[in-house]
Amino acid sequence: MNQPISIPTTGVSHFLTAWRKRAGLTQEGLADKAGISPSTVFNYESEKTIPDARTWAILVQILEIPGWDSDSHRIWLQND
Q: Residues near 41 by Cβ (< 8 Å), separated by ≥ 6?
């Protein structure tokens, strides 16, 4: 059964950092692909700021995070 989780507003640093590293990207590499500055990625990963919905959609696509629903802005996780 699938269960939705909302876009995290806290703990985003761990989520984003883990998926970025899984994709084999540096902060600079992710920033380049997303069209944002490396300092913006740093700020997301250090929880100084959080991505807006549009930026999340871009990051999710780049990082190939499964289960992203762009209409509800949720990630659907599969329960085994």
A: 16, 20, 27, 28, 30, 31, 34
**Model confidence at 75, in pLDDT bands (50, 70, 90)?**
low
Q: For the chain, which domains are there?
A: 2-78 (1.10.260.40)
The pTM score is 0.74
- Give every CB contact of residue 37 below 8 A, 6+ residues apart in sequence: 31
* CA distances for 35 relative to 31, 73, 74, 75, angstroms: 6, 20, 22, 22
